[in-house]
What does this fold into?
Amino acid sequence: MKTIHPKITEVLTGTFKVPAAEILPESTMDSLEMDSLAVAEFAVIIKETLGVDADSEKLYKDATLADISAYIDAAVGSAAAEATVPVSNTR
It folds into this structure.
């Protein structure tokens, strides 16, 4: 089984009281009984803690947790890569 992004697991279990046993790669927000308000709140928490901005209705509502985790990892990786791009001072 693929590991779900730790922040996703932390938010779902801590904030939304989703049982850890239900947090599976193939789970969706619908299967976890997260309504649209909860999904929007989840998206805000992810943005505030990880800096990952996404349309909560498109990404979080229809995607599996594995999809969401991959998206977050890619977005965080892109941000880190951009922050470490060397800048040449030569003219």
